[in-house]
Write a structure and sequence with these properties.
The protein is an alpha/beta fold. The protein contains ten helices and eleven strands. Strands 1, 2, 5, 6, 7, 8, 9, 10 and 11 form a nine-stranded mixed sheet that branches. Strands 3-4 form a two-stranded antiparallel ribbon. It is globular, with a radius of gyration of 22 Å. The relative contact order is 0.17. About 1% of the residues have low confidence.
Length: 345
């Protein structure tokens, strides 16, 4: 099992050939001595997450991305009429196995670098499944089991573009189909601090207006997928904030109840208020403390400008370098906006 520390979680979205964006963001975080204890990866985020769990850092992972070309990931389906997909992912399987991306022996051992969660969507039910290399802290439906190449490929199996992947006798599509950047698995694993890296502009209408209209069928399908992925994250973030609001109300209620109980105790001569310990300073003496789980808002690393959707299925060095630099700069901006100090100004 990975280390006992579980405070910091990195959630990596889907985005196909734009995955070097994750690596640029990771480089900035590592330079600021922020290292994840938990990684939740969807689609290409599952690939990068598995690499991190295998021991890669931003520099070694970037070395792999710089060499990655389209031919290493996919090839055309020569019989599209006999299947329901356009591209075959057999090259990706070979690349992950032979080019040093993932070490499944380490990933599934006590030497794993992080607690890893990957997601995939069951084709027949549409249910999101979460698979992990360690147990969760809180009750969940996550399936703890040895993670395999099939788990990673299943998470990357974009509907129509790639074939579904068989796992446990069921067919699975890309986890991003229903949840592109799921924060729930990170919280279930024990995270108290979450950084989300998403490849679609978030909360910026001006950036959205800069995107040109789809020019062909592939761009239309990709754009539809892009906004569906963003909508899933927006829903997840909204739920996260509502739960936090509920916890704040519960904490305030508990504080009032605690003070009432203490006042009654003092009136009856049973409690000396000055002797009570409040270690976390939340106004509720530890004697009457209950377990509440309130988290700060996640830091969201997202581009200011849309990354061309056609890059989802394009893997080219020049484009990797472009989004790698973008991920680094966007992480710097998000870090600063969160009130944290950026080294070097």
């Amino acid at each position: 099992m990975p280390g006992k520390e579980r405070k910091k979680a990195l959630v990596l979205s889907g985005g196909g050939g734009r995955g070097a964006y994750h690596v640029g963001a990771l480089r900035f975080l590592e330079e600021h001595e922020w290292f994840p204890d938990i990684v939740v990866g969807t689609s290409i985020g599952a690939v990068n997450g598995a690499a991190i769990a295998s021991g890669h850092n931003a520099y070694s992972l970037w070395a792999l991305w710089r060499r990655l070309e389209t031919k290493h990931v996919q090839r055309a389906n020569l019989n599209p009429l006999n299947g329901n997909f356009l591209l075959n992912t057999a090259p990706l399987r070979e690349t992950l196995q032979k080019e040093g991306w993932v070490n499944f022996d380490r990933l599934n051992s006590d030497e794993a670098a992080v607690h890893l969660r990957v997601t995939a969507t069951e084709v027949h039910s549409g249910h999101l499944h979460v698979f992990g290399n360690s147990g969760d802290i809180y009750p969940s439906r996550m399936r703890r089991e040895p993670l395999t190449l099939d788990h990673i490929i299943a998470s990357c199996s974009i509907p129509i573009v790639y074939p579904a992947t068989e796992l446990h006798g069921n067919l699975y599509w890309d986890g991003a189909t229903v949840a592109n950047t799921p924060m729930g698995p990170a919280i279930d694993a024990g995270a108290e601090e979450i950084i989300v890296v998403i490849m679609t502009p978030f909360g910026d209408d001006e950036a959205a207006e800069q995107q040109h209209p789809p020019r062909n069928l592939l761009e239309a399908a990709s754009t539809t997928l892009e906004w569906a992925l963003l909508a899933s994250f927006q829903a997840d973030l909204k739920l996260f904030r509502r739960v936090n609001d509920l916890v704040r109300l519960q904490v305030e209620n508990a504080r009032l109840q605690a003070h009432n109980a203490l006042l009654l105790g003092q009136l009856r001569g049973l409690i000396n208020y000055d002797d009570l310990v409040d270690a976390d300073g939340n106004g509720i003496p530890d004697l009457l403390e209950k377990e509440y789980h309130q988290l700060p808002d996640p830091i969201i690393v997202a581009p200011k400008r849309p990354i061309p959707v056609e890059q989802i299925i394009q893997y080219e060095r020049a484009k990797h370098e472009q989004v790698y630099k973008m991920g680094y700069e966007d992480a710097k901006r998000a870090w600063r906006e969160a009130g944290r100090e950026v080294e070097g100004g």
